[in-house]
Specification:
Length: 236
């Protein structure tokens, strides 16, 4: 456990990237969203109407704005930190455990930030101006519990996917991500081909907990894949 926490602390030494940069990106996306809404008002739309709320809640910028950064952090948490961690005496197993724990900590941090900001947005009547930034469909439509779960599991999924692709690169270099990406695309296509005849019934039977199960499966599978790739890799 001590070795695992040591690997986690190694990641946490990047305090600015872990804690400050996500805040900056969140603030920038929020500012852009506000400017777009001001532009819509200038174009003649009226805040507070049903059409306004429907359109504003369709804004997915806050969700997509962090995806690229989280993916990058997932990749570098393995690709650049793994060789350094091994030179400091970490084992591959403890490094993977520590990295997964770091993913969880940073995902919980982001979930807490989004939940607090949503609470403020709701308490202020959407920033006193009917500006929907965190109260959007993709983030749970104003539910504090849903936004916490969505951001945590979503962040963990992206971190873990970035990590497993980075681990495949560490193990096989350029061939690793290419083969892994191709295999995943083919698997998704096969699943879609099998599901198309029953697509309508699947949509009608859909439940939100399916997404939770899918996210947990992605996180678990990616974490195991990261361990499997790094277990047989050499440090270059």
């Amino acid at each position: 456990m001590t070795d695992t926490l040591a690997a986690t602390r190694l990641h946490l030494n990047k305090r600015e990237m872990t804690f400050v940069v996500p805040l900056g990106i969140t603030g920038l996306v929020a500012l852009i969203s506000v400017l777009i809404m001001v532009l819509l008002i200038r174009a003649g739309q009226t805040p507070g109407t049903d059409a306004w709320v429907e359109g504003a809640r369709s804004n997915g910028g806050m969700l997509w704005g962090l995806c690229g950064f989280i993916g990058y952090m997932g990749v570098q948490s393995v690709a650049t930190t793994f060789p350094f961690a091994l030179t400091l005496g970490a084992t591959r197993r403890h490094f993977v455990f520590g990295t997964v724990l770091w993913w969880a900590i940073t995902s919980a941090y982001l979930a807490a930030i989004f939940t607090v900001l949503l609470a403020i947005e709701l308490a202020t009547g959407h920033w006193f101006a009917d500006f929907y930034i965190f109260d959007v469909f993709l983030l749970g439509s104003g539910s504090l519990a849903k936004i916490a779960v969505i951001v945590f599991l979503g962040s963990m999924s992206i971190y873990s996917l970035g990590g497993v692709f980075a681990a495949s690169w560490v193990r096989f270099r350029n061939r690793g991500p290419i083969v892994l990406g191709t295999a995943l695309v083919l698997a998704v296509l096969v699943v879609l081909i099998l599901a198309v005849p029953s697509f309508r019934s699947i949509v009608e039977a859909f439940r939100a907990w399916w997404l939770i199960v899918a996210a947990v499966a992605v996180i678990a599978g990616s974490s195991i894949g990261t361990w499997a790739f790094l277990r047989g890799s050499s440090v270059r």
